[in-house]
Amino acid sequence: MGAILSISTTTVGEAIRRRVLLVILMIGVLLISIVPALSVLSARSDLTTTISSMLFVLRIVSVLIAIVLTVYMIPNEIERRTIYTILSKPVQRWQFLVGKYLGAVLALGLMIGLMAGVMLILFYFFKHPPMERMLDLLRQAILYFIEVSLLAAVAIFFSTFVTPLVNFFLSAGVWGVGSLLNPLYDSFANNQGSAPIIRGMAKFVTSILPNFSNYDVKNPIINPGVTIQNETTYYLGTAGYGLLYITILIIAGILIFDRREV
Amino acid sequence: MGAAIETRQLTKTYKSRALGKINVVDHLDLQVEEGEIFGFLGPNGAGKTTTIKMLLGIIYPSAGEGYVLGREIGDMDVHRVISYLPERPYYYEHMTGMEILKFYGALFGINDKDKFQRLLEKVNLAGDATKTISQYSKGMQQRIGLAQSLLNDPKLLFLDEPTGGLDPIAHTEIRDLILQFRDEGRTVFISSHELSEVERICDRVAIINKGKIERQGRLEDLLRGGRIEVIADGLNQGFADTVRAPESTVSFHNGRLIVDMSEEGDVNGLLDGIRDAKGQIISVVPRRRRLEDLFIETISEKKSGGEAA
């Protein structure tokens, strides 16, 4: 446990010093900060536009940070030979991979926490929303954190056998398709009008890929008419789904990494 | 004393699209005794680092077997008593020297500030403990590397090019530390190109080329068969003709006779002959073979052998 903790805290230290991540983070904070001011230009309900824009920026920037942070994580350790020094100590490969993953999740937590904190403070300061809205935003930020933790697991899994560039596009692709899974399922897999082969393929894709669209509950937040049935069950179920997927991906990554020549 | 490292027919094969199967390490039989400094030499791409990685369990052998401190390679228990300093190591640049030791110490479950301090003193970095690695010179980075490699009080150290790219002062510092390790009873396995350095500190060496061990043994045995140079004055060409032999070269320079002969030749006979001919002996200088000569000879032999084949 000491080895995992030590590797993960060092990973956080490295991550929060990576200039490219800090630049993306600063852009995210800046965009979130100017959204309340820009929303006055919108013809739609002021509050709806503000929430929608802030959450959009938070999600996209978080996803970008998660991918950039994790695709280089393992390859960098191999290229810089730090992995050799670490693996020559009594550290198993699975401990190294889990440590790196947990470090990435912690770093993502800090970065999303910063953006979400700025978002909540500015939202409260400019719009004086009811507490219920503030809690909605907080819950959405937590769901985004779980979403990017799952995405980080996808990228770590790919990084055990593909190059960073390929991993970047693969992970972004998985997230892109995974974010459209609910509409995809409704349009094809669940649609009796679709050809059986299309339905079958859609069902296969939706059952293999992690469903990232579950983590976006922006619609019920901005549309009072849309509600989530049994919120507690939904949030717990979504978190459990993410945790299960993360576990599967990390175990698969360990199995590949364990036999890999580094 | 037992063997610190032993390999039997250890082989690592890689597949290449262009060249097919290549044995990067080819049926390697290596024996390193406990408490010695062992030099593992070879040209670039000879298979040195691959061998070290296999011994550390970082990559897996394709065939053969290997034992480190009596345990099969890859056994995690042995990692508690060995350490490794890679070639041109990188340490997390945001960390200070002390933090580096804390980090690597935590991998062993060691959290002993006094020990970290003692190690920093040992490698002459106590005054730079709070500087970040980005502020360290190459020599300092190598020394912090050696300090981290001593955290677990290892019985066996693997050092890959420990003096590569360092200035002469840093060279000397690292060499002194390595000699100190042997005095402390540790086994040191050095992979290096710095042949003069290896010659100074190693007890035994192995020369590897194209994955195969070409020479292995005690340095004094491998370097035996040196030359002796005798310079004498007051002799003529007639005398020179009498001392010519297949194993020696005879020449005149500024009127002085220079005989370069094998150490095993009849040196005393030559000296008696000079005296009998009323010559004056200026100098008798034994010239031991250098490791560099042996290395070049070994690699060239292989090259010409390979070409002939």
What labels would you give this structure?
heterodimer, A: 262 residues, mainly alpha, B: 309 residues, alpha/beta, six-stranded mixed β-sheet, four-stranded antiparallel β-sheet, 10 helices, 31% strand
Biggest beta-sheet profile of chain B: 6 strands, mixed
Average pLDDT for all residues of chain B: 89
Spatial order of the strands forming the largest sheet of chain B = 6-7-8-3-9-10
Low-confidence parts of chain B lasting 5 or more residues at pLDDT below 50? none
How many structural domains does the protein architecture of chain B include? Answer: 2
- Secondary-structure-based class of chain B equals alpha/beta
CA(first)-CA(last) distance of chain A: 23 Å
**Element order of chain A: H for helix, E for strand:** HHHHHHHHHHHH
Helix content of chain A: over 70%
Give the CATH H-level superfamily of the largest domain in chain B. Answer: P-loop containing nucleotide triphosphate hydrolases
Report how far the terminal alpha carbons of chain B are from each other. Answer: 41 Å
In round numbers, the mean pLDDT of chain A is 89
- Judging from the principal axes of the Cα atoms, what is the shape of chain A? globular
What does the largest sheet of chain A look like? none
Uncertain segments of chain A of ≥5 residues (pLDDT<50)?
none
Give me the count of strands of chain B: 14
